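Q: what does this look like with iron/sulfur cluster bound?
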Amino acid sequence: MAYNLTRRKFLQTASLAAATVPLAKVVTADTGFVRKPFTPPGSFADTKTATGGICEMCFWRCQIVGKVREGRLVKLEGNPKSIDNGEAICARGNAGVKLLYDPDRLKYPMKNVGERGNPKWKRISWQEAMDECGSKLKAVQDTYGAHGISVFPHGASAKYPMHYFERIVGTHNVSEASFFQCRGIRDTAYVATIGTPPGENVDMPSAKAMLFLGTHLGENVHVSHLKRYLKGLENGAKLIVVDPRYSASAAKSDIWVKIKPGTDTAFLLSVMNYLVANKKYDVEFVEEYGSGFDEFKKGISHATLDWGSKICDVPAAQIKEVAEMLAANAPHVSIHPGRHVSWYGNDFQRQRGLACLTGLLGAVGVKGGFVKPKGPKVKGISWAKGDHGGEHNLREMADKHHYSPPGTPTDLIREACVTGKPYPIKGCVIWGQNPIQTIPNQEMTIKALKQMDFVVCVDVMPTDITMYADILLPECSYLERYDYIKKGTQWNFADTHQQYISARTPLVEPLFERKDSVWITNEIAKRMGYGDKIPVASQEEKVDKELASAGLSIAQLQKEDGIHIQPGKDPYGVPEDFEVLFYNEDIEDNGYPGVPTYIPVEEVPKGYARLLYGRSPVHTFNRSQNNVWLFNAMPENPVWINDESAQKLGLKDGDRVTMVNSEGVKSITSTSVKVTPGIRKDSVYIVHGYGSMNPAMTVGVGAGIDDQRLITKLAVDPETGAHGMRNNFVKLVKDGKVLEIPA
Ligand SMILES: Nc1nc2c(c(=O)[nH]1)N[C@H]1C(S)=C(S)[C@@H](COP(=O)(O)OP(=O)(O)OC[C@H]3O[C@@H](n4cnc5c(=O)[nH]c(N)nc54)[C@H](O)[C@@H]3O)O[C@H]1N2
Ligand SMILES: Nc1nc2c(c(=O)[nH]1)N[C@H]1C(S)=C(S)[C@@H](COP(=O)(O)OP(=O)(O)OC[C@H]3O[C@@H](n4cnc5c(=O)[nH]c(N)nc54)[C@H](O)[C@@H]3O)O[C@H]1N2
Ligand code: SF4
Ligand SMILES: [Mo]
């Protein structure tokens, strides 16, 4: 492993590293930090091409085809017909083959005859597994009510069971980490400001300038999104990256704002106040579409360049330079809304700030701005919606988090589990989520799991969460099942207005006793007395019915090489009834600031550094840790430490360290040190998802450090109830000696 690349070389390679054709043509990946996607040697002339695949090594869901030899998948490629990812897939997409045939994969239904957290597995039949799930969940429902069941879903296959438990069984206690620990805040803050969740819908290919907060594209890899970003750069867009760390994007930027962590809202307010005070904003746009602008103007007038400079620890001149660059290129600016935005517990306000800045620059519906492409309509088929009222809705009972994403904030569920108040939660369904490594404060999560009467976990791999299941069920992977309708528009939605519809169809037959989610959910539903409410008999039927709503079918899609393409619509123009609520009275009535406001975060205590985390282009959270190709590409997550600090501490590249946080929690595993000028002195950084503890993951177990173990301090975002996860402080430990991080 070449972690000892020079900084320059690392910066050249890290950014795009992971992509294959045609991305590789844009930026050539060097060897080193990230290897080129592995292609098995030999000829594929004798293989058959299976179309209709949709990748789910991550949730961007690129369109793929498989090369199949004698029923065995030997290679994955982008679907050449795709007008989204095209022929390009990333290193993780490429390595899907290794997930499919991972010998550690779950194969049969299992019953835990040991303890939760320290399991002993006994193979059982599906009949027995389903009987047990049905009767145990029914018992919880009968004793504690439907709300006694909690559900932790993620991924395409988890939607159907999620709807079953929400709509038919009738529990509100559903929590998606992909909302509450990810992008939920972004969506509700934009809805409260411009009336719509933003997706990642910025027209980067046509942008003249782009602004990223955090957003580390190149390490965060979503193929078509990356294509848009690179096209923008290729077309000469200016790039402003705000990040305490020299990220892959920062390495390509014109301005890198090395911001003090947690202070981004102050930065945005300073930029906006400068634009307003100097009349450098889009006056006409604001007059036509703005609401509450006077309150906004007054509310941010304290945010001078000097004020921002002091709080953010960046030069006032740089904040001004950013504002000037945005103004000079407006309205053709992509103010990126971000994706993982649950950072500090003050995040709703920052996301509101981003939406307001977009409006201030008039960057809506224009080339380069915030543009929502108009995709085709396909009707989803699932369980019929029931009306179960809000009686046991924890969020409503607590009368807080009024801008919560759909579902129930994880923390409210976990608290109810641990305290039994306002009511007990005793059943748990975990479907494609890994709360142990996904939700901060592992100790609380483990307490919540241990007090359950019954825990069922549906997964493909034995990850850390599966150790807490009573019944563990093996699901078909995304390469072996029908389920997801992928629809959208041409990747850059600018040149040719085209739309596409595709559906996930299996590339190979499932092996062992793996089943799909419609089958599993229906069997549980029958045993809980809801057999008459089952909407579809099979996953294939579900997909076919959904396609029928768009005049298509699985058979038709197969004739069209897996993707139906049709003429699209011009995405530009400001949507009808569009409004920017610079000041939002409702927010204020609910007890939060109605004008975007900076709420300070806890300062780093002496001797500590703030623990930051992010993505690696070759891994998806923890879910890819056992994948041998990806493991080999990045077998651990070196901790980034500032070079001057390292020198004072006598730390060198490659030294082995563990970590301890300010609450005394120690990492169980160790990692190496990466010494770099590319990070502030007040922070250290690791890639999220490492440090697995499940010995059944024979490749990934024990590699690197688990950030989540050290994230013990919660910072709940008041508006949304989502978790801020960057308020934890750590020291490094070398050879048993705890090192005081210099200020
Ligand atoms: N390869 C790969 N790609 C992925 C994923 C994956 O697992 N693997 N996951 C996908 C998912 S679900 C998501 S949500 C996205 C997440 O990816 P992003 O949405 O890009 O996540 P961020 O948290 O914005 O970005 C992490 C960056 O934020 C910086 N940062 C830390 N603190 C601060 C701060 O206070 N201010 C600022 N301005 N920056 C800060 C870190 O240094 C790091 O560079 O990635 C997606 N893409
Ligand atoms: N500390 C920290 N915490 C974070 C983040 C972070 O960066 N740092 N990132 C946050 C973000 S942005 C997100 S989106 C969340 C994601 O958090 P999760 O939703 O928990 O992450 P996943 O990796 O999608 O899901 C994990 C489980 O799904 C299983 N799985 C994979 N494929 C399938 C399948 O086809 N079927 C089934 N049934 N199971 C499957 C995996 O084996 C694994 O056990 O984590 C959040 N939490
Ligand atoms: S970005 Fe990579 S891992 Fe994610 S869906 Fe596309 S090919 Fe798969
Ligand atoms: Mo996410």
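Residues 126-144 form the longest helix (19 residues). Residues 1-35 have pLDDT under 50 and may be disordered.
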